[in-house]
Design a protein that fits this description.
This protein is α+β, with helices and mostly antiparallel strands and 281 residues long. Helix content is 16%, strand content 34%. It has helices at residues 60-63, 82-101, 143-154, 158-162, 194-197; strands at residues 5-13, 24-27, 41-52, 65-69, 105-115, 138-139, 166-174, 184-187, 198-204, 209-215, 223-225, 233-241, 252-254, 267-276. β9 and β10 (209-215) form a beta hairpin. The longest helix is centred in the first third of the chain and has 20 residues, at 82-101. The radius of gyration is 18 Å and the shape is globular. The protein starts with a strand and ends in a 5-residue tail after the last strand. The model has no long low-confidence stretch (mean pLDDT 93).
């Protein structure tokens, strides 16, 4: 597959009149007809160059992006077994993070397996039987959301941990490769301006609400992907840095390869973790 392609990225557009009076939101459940599921628009921006991350020579602490190889590859069918994911795959990811970042304290707090339906994204969202690829450029955590998660996960130690240098990172890979169906695109954090490019959004589910950032288009953004990503390769990208805030947050999304697409619908796993750096405040 070509090392660089030109494709379409979905960005939020913050020119809705509603946003002058209320916070941006997305409702992920059935609502009465008079209540819109969102009060802003996500639009298509074609003609975006997406470069090869393998040859980009980016640094994680500067650009928020990295690639790593796993020592072992758990069979795709084993990811159907929650016990195997937690006893085999997550420890492997833990070790991979430690080696890449030179840290010892890694706390994995969440993972998600996505399975694209063959009719996605053309079917109504409520009919999905598993989480689908996220198509709009976004960052998973706002500063307020991070503070809430610190208290939720670390309880009475939250204040102590919150004073340290920490990051939240994502580790992403396909369950089978080479991947040629809705791969992930990652924006170099260095090319994103947190003051102008981010829209805080309440993403509301039936039992919980999360505050995330949807990303606004900026021609300075530089996007990357891993062509023909293998199931032994993981993309590691930053979601937050306690020293730099969103300056080291990498916007990301899935995108359509168009005519270059092939193979079965994508299945993937993403792992989220807190990383704490030793003796660094």
């Amino acid at each position: 597959m070509a090392k660089q392609i030109v494709s379409t990225i979905r960005y939020a557009v913050a020119d809705s009149e509603a946003l002058a009076e209320e916070k941006a939101y997305i409702l992920n459940y059935d609502t009465p007809g008079h209540i819109p599921k969102s009060n802003f628009v996500i639009d298509l921006f074609p003609g975006i160059p997406i470069h090869d991350l393998r040859t980009a020579n980016l640094g994680f602490q500067e650009n928020g992006l990295a690639i790593a190889s796993l020592d072992h590859c758990m069979p795709k069918e084993d990811f159907e077994n929650e016990e195997k994911v937690e006893s085999v795959y997550l420890p492997e990811v833990h070790g991979c993070i430690c080696r890449l970042l030179g840290v010892e304290e890694v706390y994995i707090f969440d993972y998600m397996i996505r399975k694209r339906e063959s009719s996605f994204p053309y079917q109504p969202k409520m009919k999905d039987t598993a989480p689908q690829p996220a198509l709009s450029a976004h960052i998973d955590y706002t500063t307020d959301e991070i503070q809430g998660r610190l208290h939720s996960y670390f309880k009475e130690k939250a204040e102590e941990f919150g004073k340290r240098w920490f990051q939240i990172i994502n580790v992403w890979k396909p369950l089978a490769g080479p991947l040629r169906d809705y791969p992930m695109a990652y924006c170099d954090a260095k090319t994103m301006n947190p003051q102008t490019d981010l829209l805080a959004v309440d993403e509301v589910f039936p039992t919980v609400a999360n505050e995330v950032y949807q990303v606004l288009h900026n021609p300075d953004h530089r996007w990357y992907y891993i062509p023909d990503q293998l199931d032994t390769e993981v993309a590691i990208f930053a979601g937050y840095d306690s020293r730099q805030g969103q300056n080291l947050s990498a916007p990301h999304c899935s995108f359509d390869l168009g005519d270059a697409s092939s193979g079965r619908p994508r299945q993937s796993i993403e792992v989220r973790a807190f990383v704490f750096y030793e003796n660094a405040n």
